[in-house]
Amino acid sequence: MDLEKRPPQGQGQGPEGCLVVAIRIPVRIVVLVLVVPVRMVWDALVVAGRFLNDTVLRPVGRALEWVARAVFVWPLVGLWRYVVVPVGKALGWLGNVLLVIPAVWTYQYVLTPLGHALAWAARGVAAGLGWLYARVLTPIGHAVMRVLTPVGQAIVWCAKGIGWILGMAVTGIGTGLYWIARVLFVLPALALWRWVLVPVGRVLAVVAREVGDALGHAWRIAGRISLAVGRALGTLFRWIFVEPVRWVYRTVLTPVGHVVRDAVLRPAAEAARSVGRATRLALASARESVRQARADFRRMVFGEPARAEAVDRREPTGRETRTLGSSTTALTKD
Got the DSSP string for 136-190? Predict the structure, then answer.
């Protein structure tokens, strides 16, 4: 993978410093190292999901669909097509024959003539009642009204008089109750509100306002004091703890660490590496000795193996012959 993309042909490349290039390449390498495992895991999950979908989920879904059709859909379709529809048609024909046709015949040949006869009789009765009202009841009513009108007017005048008397009595009683309630309740309540509650409320409001202002002022002063105390404690903590620790780290621990690193850790690491190299060389020598002894034992027991005949591989000879130690590239060519 090319970590540095080349600009397209025909476009100029802006000047870039060595620092930009030196930062870009390690960053791209680190990003590549971090992204490649994630992408590999993602691709593996996608492939596994597709395989599971193709080999398990899709066949199982098709089988379930076929089972659902065989168990539910096809029986319901057959029941609807071969049972419900014929039975419905038969019931519809039977209802038409037993109910609709008799009802239509009854309405047309029985109810309609009977209704016409009842309507004619009702019109005759209404005409008779109209004649009776106009010719008999109306004159009788007029005669009765001429006799009862003075009596009704007298009754109305008496009722008005009684109503006026009752109204005056109620008005007098209500006025008396109003003044009694005003004297006993309203005027004392107004006096209490005007001469007691209002002054006390004003005094309490002034007190509450002053208390609130005092609390706000005290809160601000306390905040400033707290800030000053906090700063003082922070400065004291820095003088007592932070600065001594920093001085000890800078003047004691750092030189001691450098001395330990240079005098102890590096020589120990070199000694460990030397021991490791010597151990690897000893192990390699031992393995070589074991292989040589095994080869000698095989030659002693089985004899020398047959040599394979040389095969002409038609390799080029001369100066143009390519070997493992030579190269034809422009960078490594002798």
Answer: IIHHHHHHHHHHHHHHHHHHHHHHHHHHHHHHHHHHHHHHHHHHHHIIIIIHHHH
26 contacts 3 by C-beta, under 8 angstroms: no
Q: Is the pTM of this model over 0.70?
A: no
- 174-201 pLDDT, tens digit per residue, is 888 888 888 888 888 988 998 989 888 8
Q: CB of 278 within 8 A of CB of 284?
A: no
Q: How far apart are CA 146 and CA 302, in angstroms?
A: 164
Produce one character per residue of 142-151: b if its CB has 16 or more CB atoms within 10 Å, e if not: eeeeeeeeee
Count CA atoms within 13 Å of residue 86 on its CB side: 5
At residue 101, φ and ψ (nearest 5 deg) are -65, -45
Q: What is the largest CA-CA distance in the chain?
A: 168
Rounded to 5 degrees, what are φ and ψ at 76? -65, -40
Residue-range domain boundaries for the chain: 18-289
The number of CA neighbours under 13 Å toward the Cβ of 308 is: 3
Cβ atoms of 62 and 41 closer than 8 Å:
no
Rounded Cα–Cα distance for residues 204 and 186 (Å): 25
How does DSSP classify residue 4? S
For 205, the token pair is 């409001």
- Please state, in angstroms and rounded to a whole number, the distance separating the CA atoms of residues 80 and 88: 10
- pLDDT tens digits for range 77-91: 989 988 899 998 889
